[in-house]
Design a protein that fits this description.
Layout: E1 6-12, E2 18-26, E3 29-39, E4 46-55, H1 60-76
Antiparallel strand pairs: 1-2, 2-3, 3-4
Length: 84
């Protein structure tokens, strides 16, 4: 088993920043962490920011459902393409 944090995915946020999704254990609590990483120096090395969200895994299905609703609504509004 890989020791936490375990990287799951990277999603673009802007042309310079990204959201990294990982699984972690903090003070014995299992968490799904979504953190914004952005460059802090001229070297453009991405570092974690305070922006983000950590939730317990049992609420992950609720978050996924909410994101699906947001996706469907954005499609209906013409903000993005894709099937609703």
């Amino acid at each position: 088993m890989i020791a936490p944090p375990f990287a799951v995915a990277v999603v673009g946020k802007t042309d310079k920043a990204e959201v990294r999704v990982s699984l972690d254990i903090v003070k014995g609590v299992k968490l799904v962490d979504m953190r914004v990483f952005a460059p802090f120096t001229a070297s453009n090395i991405l570092m974690p920011t305070k922006e983000g969200l950590s939730i317990r895994p049992e609420f992950l299905t609720d978050l996924i459902d909410a994101l699906k609703k947001a996706h469907d609504q954005a499609c209906e509004m013409g903000w993005i393409g894709g099937a609703a």
